[in-house]
């Protein structure tokens, strides 16, 4: 890595105008990525606030901190905001939008205006849902189970349902844009098996986004129709089957958890190779397991319904398929660990987030096996074991990957370096806070504490207090990156084109890149992650 | 369509956007984008068709009673109208590909006309199911699911009346969503007719006409499945 | 600026295959005929096969529209892949749903 | 005395031991795998840390052998977990024949339970130890879930259908009963206790309670009040199928199928008689939708279940067979 002082380039995409019009009407994928970065960070803050309220209430067993009504609205708000407005768009909309054209040597995504439209749809959906949550709240849980959501809840179900329905199309349009871009706009010489694994992961994610999201869109629409016009889709008094709603809801919502984790897996593949300066172990196996996850992810949804009274025989089929879908994730984890073997591992912040990801995603993935096995699931489903399981995957996996990616490509996005020491401190704090929050919940789950309980028996209090303590450390830990990364935008030391000495087309351009990315479309000749040969400079006019 | 791209080069076409290297790449990308959008629509309607399939296996009698109540003649006529509009749409795309500008406008206006006929027939069909539901007094013949649903019109009592409400929820849901897709399609068709009247399209570049054609044919396919599933199960 | 290499991912065939209008007319007439068949077929009772027959005719009509009106027959393999994958996921949804609903009433066979 | 920091609820039912064993088996396997990867991760990260900027890492592309091993080995382990889990699941869905049937009705924020002897309880269930108890679970409004952690059983109470679960308590004591499916404001208050008693204590408790009217008796009274008796009677004037001894056996339907006449079939036939019409009978029976509550339905089903083939049973309660009231809307 060059050691002499770097200087910021004169011309780059951030300099292409600073007025409102240049930001709100931009069709530059990099600027839209930043627009998304700001909006989902805001939504993450709101979701964390709700989480804080939930954990605060669970400090005492008798639920005397707040009314049951307020608690139900708090955990629903936490679920809705975090799932639909932070985790689904998190990496694809920010890092994906920013990096995919750069990584495949294109000037922009295939449909720049649809990309801007997808951000506006996200904002409208978020505004509507926030309006519903603020002016009365939603108390159905993010799962909207009927007949409670359609017949018995007096909260803003219709408004929130329409908000989420709209936000779904933002995810569909992002997926559509990525699929067409990756197929049609790769640089010459960039065959499928030379693509970075980040692009593979986003290709698999986009397939799920495009083919899964419409089913929840129609399901949420049916809930709204049933409340507004008294249609009878899920009304048990008229023969409607509430379990059918669960089928249609989870047909999307399980693949949705793969929308949340696959992009993080792509980020991990990029960072682990760069910081062990070594070729990825088993490139084609990782690429293919991304696609396998996308395909198998659609076959397993009914493991959420094992105790709902579905047929015993089809429960057996779904249990077997749920075990099958764990195999590709296991393959990836083994391959990342093997990449470190005989490498040259540098312990920078992105790499620490990779260690956190592999360590914690492992627990998240393996605890899924308990829930896939029918006998144990009867006892564990709808308890805090499930809450701990999916938080280990979403917070321990997806958010660690998101933060790692943010730190890894921060020099490319802003052209400046963040302070390395702060990075290490905050990742350690996040790791400790996270484990203290969610590991006790595994034990709570096996002890039988059900989910979504405003008050609980006394014997669970100690573990809940531990969990709340962990939550405060985690919340505090997340404030760190927010502050020193923002600080680095203004005061950070210029980073130069390739501060980590990484491979990949995005590192051959200047940092931050020009508005049209490449003066000359690069021709790709080397294999991906070929760290043996020196990093290449892009031909500049 | 977009400002003249910065590049020089003789064969550069005004409609080529800056981030594509050739018109052919832009056309292929747009066409793939439309097909992926249609794949998403298949799943969007798919959720409804899956609900229909499940409830039809659960309540065959109520479904055939409900379907028997729908007049298949209207459905039959509407199907022919929609297939006709598919033909005129395809001829429109054909004329755009062969550069006959006036024919394109003519065929697209014909498509809009046939689409409006379809929606008009739909309006009246809905009318005689919804009108009795308003006003006080007996809601005989009201088929909108809810308290005022009149199941005696279908000679059904007890839980079967509830199952008939599910049939009509599906009927209004599926045909309503289909009609909504046509209501969105018609203004876009008008826009395309206006632009082709302004001479924007040529044999080299008529992608928007193709894309609207794909969308319109998809809407026709949805109706091709709706007609037998909703109108024809009760008639034997 | 030198002419760029045509990106490898760009299809090589000419600008969209132009189908003669006679094909469209033939397909249109076939569709009308099939619609008439749909109504007649619904007339008499095939017992459990009513749904299969009705769907069979509808699927033939839909295939005709996709192949000729939507030019799927002349477009690249990628388009076929997109169509196939969307139908595949719809079939997954319906089949695994019915797997639950149709096997619910089966009584549990005694152990061993 | 359970340890200060219990890691699992008390094992108080026949399946609890096996569920814990399966849980420990999976915990052992996943624990080993996790430990192995953590150790490898940190050993590699420390052993191969970057010492100088220009050390040359090895050129390794991958190895098919390794990939196959860590695909096939996990698959085999998972098959074991799957098979054991499925076997346990099937066992949980097959109640022994001698099980006493308790009806559970979830209603927003309380559990209403009814013993076979008619004893009604709210939020509490007293059962004798060692006796298999079959739970017939339904709900009156939204979805609830009957969850007893100490017995390791859970089953949703879904409005509009009967779900079944069973347990055999093995240890006396009082155990938590939770509602595990979110059902609104007081979801966390919809809890209760399952009290497992010695059989003698259970009899005393039963006797001590208010003289219950057994569901069979209540069912019989309803059977005549609602004029079922006019059509369903063992003699030749019957215009409806003979119910004596038909519960639990398979019935041939007008549509040609055969269906097991279980609780769900009886309930559906009471509410929509034409749905699964018995072969050889006219669909003249009126629907009782809206006239009978969930509890009354359970009593009727209990009475029909108790009807045995009258080898030389006393003649049916001899009331002059009033002309069957004009059937309600004759279905098409």
Task: Draw up the topology in text.
The complex is a heterotetramer of chains A (541), B (236), C (112) and D (332).
Chain B: H1 23-58, H2 60-69, H3 72-97, H4 101-130, H5 159-197, H6 207-231
Chain C: H1 21-43, H2 50-69, H3 77-103
Helix pairs in contact in C: 1-2
Chain D: H1 16-47, H2 64-92, E1 100-107, E2 110-114, E3 120-122, E4 124-128, E5 132-139, E6 144-148, E7 153-157, E8 163-168, E9 173-179, E10 192-197, H3 199-208, H4 215-225, H5 228-231, E11 250-252, E12 258-260, H6 263-271, H7 294-306
Parallel strand pairs in D: 1-5, 4-10
Antiparallel strand pairs in D: 1-2, 2-3, 5-8, 6-7, 6-9, 9-10, 11-12
Helix pairs in contact in D: 1-2, 4-7
Describe this structure in words.
The complex is a heterotetramer of chains A (541), B (236), C (112) and D (332). Chain A is mainly alpha-helical. Chain A is built from 16 helices and no strands. Chain A has helices spanning 20-24, 29-57, 68-87, 90-103, 112-134, 148-152, 157-184, 197-229, 242-275, 283-296, 312-340, 349-372, 374-380, 384-414, 420-447, 461-491. The longest helix of chain A has 34 residues, at 242-275. Chain A is globular, with a radius of gyration of 23 Å. Chain B has helices spanning 23-58, 60-69, 72-97, 101-130, 159-197, 207-231. Chain B is built from 6 helices and no strands. With 236 residues, chain B is mostly helical. Chain B has a single domain (23-231), classed as Up-down Bundle (Four Helix Bundle (Hemerythrin (Met), subunit A)), CATH 1.20.120. The N and C termini of chain B lie far apart (54 Å). Chain C has 112 residues and is an all-alpha fold. Chain C has 2 domains: 19-74; 76-105. Helix content of chain C is 62%, strand content 0%. Chain C is built from 3 helices and no strands. Chain C has helices at residues 21-43, 50-69, 77-103. Chain D is α+β, with helices and mostly antiparallel strands. Helices cover 33% and strands 19% of the residues of chain D. Chain D has 7 helices and 12 strands. Chain D has helices at residues 16-47, 64-92, 199-208, 215-225, 228-231, 263-271, 294-306; strands at 100-107, 110-114, 120-122, 124-128, 132-139, 144-148, 153-157, 163-168, 173-179, 192-197, 250-252, 258-260. The chains are: A mainly alpha (541), B mainly alpha (236), C mainly alpha (112), D alpha+beta (332). Chains in contact: A-B, A-C, A-D, B-C, B-D, C-D.
């Amino acid at each position: 890595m060059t050691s002499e002082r770097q200087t910021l380039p004169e011309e780059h995409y951030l300099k292409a105008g600073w007025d409102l019009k240049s930001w709100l009407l931009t069709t530059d994928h990099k600027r839209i990525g930043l627009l998304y970065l700001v909006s989902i960070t805001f939504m993450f803050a709101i979701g964390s606030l709700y989480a804080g309220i939930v954990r605060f209430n669970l400090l005492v067993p008798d639920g005397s901190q707040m009314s049951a009504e307020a608690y139900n609205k708090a955990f629903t708000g936490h679920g809705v905001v975090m799932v639909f407005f932070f985790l689904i768009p998190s990496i694809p909309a920010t890092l994906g939008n920013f990096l995919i054209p750069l990584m495949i040597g294109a000037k922009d995504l295939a449909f720049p205006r649809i990309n801007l439209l997808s951000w506006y749809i996200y904002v409208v959906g978020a505004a509507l849902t926030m309006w519903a949550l603020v002016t009365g709240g939603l108390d159905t849980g993010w799962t909207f189970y009927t007949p409670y959501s359609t017949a018995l809840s007096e909260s803003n179900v219709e408004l929130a349902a329409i908000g989420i329905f709209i936000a779904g199309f933002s995810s569909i349009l992002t997926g559509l844009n990525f699929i067409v871009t990756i197929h049609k706009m790769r640089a010459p010489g960039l065959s499928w098996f030379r693509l970075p694994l980040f692009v593979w992961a986003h290709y698999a994610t986009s397939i799920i986004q495009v083919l899964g999201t419409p089913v929840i869109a129609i399901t949420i629409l049916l809930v709204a129709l049933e409340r507004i016009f008294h249609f009878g889709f899920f009304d048990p008094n008229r023969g409607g089957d509430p379990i059918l709603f669960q089928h249609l809801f989870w047909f999307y919502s399980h693949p949705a958890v793969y929308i949340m984790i696959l992009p993080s897996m792509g980020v991990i593949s990029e960072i682990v190779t760069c910081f062990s300066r070594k070729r990825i172990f088993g490139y084609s196996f990782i690429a293919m397991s991304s696609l396998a996850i996308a395909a198998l992810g659609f076959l397993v949804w009914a493991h959420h319904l094992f105790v709902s009274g579905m047929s015993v025989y089809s429960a057996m089929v779904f249990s077997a398929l749920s075990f099958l879908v764990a195999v590709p994730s296991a393959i990836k984890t083994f391959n990342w660990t093997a990449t470190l073997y005989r490498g040259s591992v540098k312990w920078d912040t992105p790499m620490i987030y990779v260690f956190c990801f592999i360590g914690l995603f492992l627990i998240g993935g393996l605890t899924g096996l308990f829930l896939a096995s029918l006998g144990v699931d009867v006892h564990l489903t709808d308890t805090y074991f499930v809450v701990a399981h999916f938080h280990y995957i979403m917070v321990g996996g997806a958010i660690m990957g998101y933060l790692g990616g943010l730190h890894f490509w921060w020099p490319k996005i802003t052209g400046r370096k963040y302070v390395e020491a702060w990075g290490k401190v905050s990742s350690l704090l996040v790791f400790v806070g996270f484990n203290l929050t969610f590991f006790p919940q595994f034990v709570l789950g096996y002890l039988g504490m059900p989910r979504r309980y405003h008050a609980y028996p006394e014997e669970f209090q100690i573990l809940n207090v531990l969990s709340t303590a962990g939550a405060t450390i985690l919340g505090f830990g997340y404030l760190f990156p927010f502050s020193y990364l923002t600080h680095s935008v203004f005061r950070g030391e210029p980073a130069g084109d390739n501060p980590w000495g990484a491979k990949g087309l995005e590192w051959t351009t200047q940092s931050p890149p020009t508005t049209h990315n490449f003066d000359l479309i690069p021709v790709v000749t080397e294999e991906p992650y070929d760290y043996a040969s020196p990093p290449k400079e892009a031909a500049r006019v | 369509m977009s400002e003249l791209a910065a590049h020089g080069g003789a064969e550069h076409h005004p409609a080529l956007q800056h981030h594509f290297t050739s018109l052919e790449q832009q056309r292929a990308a747009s066409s793939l984008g439309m097909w992926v959008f249609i794949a998403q629509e298949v799943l969007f309607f798919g959720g409804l068709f899956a609900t229909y399939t499940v409830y039809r296996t659960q309540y065959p009698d109520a479904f055939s009673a409900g379907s028997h109540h729908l007049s298949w003649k209207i459905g039959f006529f509407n199907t022919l109208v929609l297939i006709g509009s598919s033909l005129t749409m395809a001829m429109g795309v054909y004329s755009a590909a062969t550069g006959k500008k006036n024919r394109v406008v003519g065929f697209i206006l014909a498509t809009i006309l046939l689409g409006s006929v379809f929606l008009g027939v739909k309006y009246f069909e809905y009318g005689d199911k919804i009108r009795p539901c308003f006003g006080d007094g007996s809601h005989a013949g009201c088929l909108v699911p809810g308290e005022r649903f009149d199941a005696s019109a279908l000679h059904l009592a007890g839980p079967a009346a509830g199952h008939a409400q599910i049939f009509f929820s599906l009927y209004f849901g599926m045909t309503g969503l289909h009609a909504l897709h046509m209501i969105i399609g018609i203004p876009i068709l008008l826009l395309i007719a206006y632009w082709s009247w302004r001479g924007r399209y040529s044999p080299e570049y008529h992608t928007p006409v193709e894309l609207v054609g794909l969308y319109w044919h998809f809407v026709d396919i949805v109706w091709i499945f709706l007609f037998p599933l909703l109108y024809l199960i009760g008639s034997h | 600026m030198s002419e760029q290499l045509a990106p490898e991912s760009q299809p090589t065939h000419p600008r969209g295959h132009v189908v003669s209008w006679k094909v469209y007319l033939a397909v249109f007439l076939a569709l009308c005929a099939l619609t008439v068949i749909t109504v007649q077929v619904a007339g008499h009772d095939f017992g459990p096969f009513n749904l299969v027959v009705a769907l069979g005719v509808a699927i033939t009509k839909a295939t005709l529209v996709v192949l000729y009106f939507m030019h799927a027959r002349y477009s690249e393999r990628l388009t076929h892949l997109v169509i196939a994958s969307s139908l595949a996921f719809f079939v997954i949804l319906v089949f695994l749903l019915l797997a639950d609903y149709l096997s619910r009433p089966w009584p549990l066979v005694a152990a061993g | 005395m359970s340890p200060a920091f219990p890691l699992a609820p008390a094992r108080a039912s026949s399946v609890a031991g096996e569920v814990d064993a399966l849980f420990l088996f999976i915990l052992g396997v996943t624990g080993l795998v996790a430990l192995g990867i953590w150790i490898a991760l940190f050993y590699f990260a420390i052993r191969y840390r970057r010492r100088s900027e220009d050390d040359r890492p090895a050129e390794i592309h991958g190895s098919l052998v390794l990939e196959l091993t860590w695909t096939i080995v996990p698959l085999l382990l998972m098959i074991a977990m799957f098979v054991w889990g499925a076997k346990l699941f099937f066992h949980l869905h097959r109640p022994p024949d001698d099980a006493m049937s308790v009806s559970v009705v979830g209603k927003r924020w309380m559990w209403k339970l009814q013993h076979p002897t008619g004893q009604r309880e709210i939020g509490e269930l007293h059962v004798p130890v060692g006796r298999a108890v079959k739970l017939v679970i339904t709900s009156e409004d939204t979805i609830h879930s009957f969850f007893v952690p100490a017995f390791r059983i859970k089953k949703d109470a879904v409005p509009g259908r009967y779900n079944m679960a069973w347990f055999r308590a093995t240890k006396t004591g009082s155990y938590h009963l939770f509602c595990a499916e979110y059902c609104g404001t007081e979801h966390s208050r919809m809890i209760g206790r399952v009290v497992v008693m010695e059989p003698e204590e259970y009899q005393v408790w039963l006797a001590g309670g208010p003289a219950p009217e057994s569901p069979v008796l209540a069912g019989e009274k309803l059977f005549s009040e609602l004029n079922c008796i006019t059509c369903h009677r063992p003699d030749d004037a019957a215009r409806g199928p003979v119910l004596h001894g038909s519960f639990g056996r398979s019935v041939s339907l007008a549509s040609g199928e055969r269906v097991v006449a279980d609780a769900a079939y009886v309930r559906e036939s009471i509410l929509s008689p034409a749905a699964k019409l018995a072969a050889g009978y006219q669909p003249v029976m009126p629907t009782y939708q809206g006239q009978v509550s969930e509890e009354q339905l359970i009593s009727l089903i209990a009475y029909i279940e108790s009807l045995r083939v009258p080898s030389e049973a006393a003649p049916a309660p001899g009331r002059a067979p009033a002309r069957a009231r004009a059937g309600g809307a004759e279905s098409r």
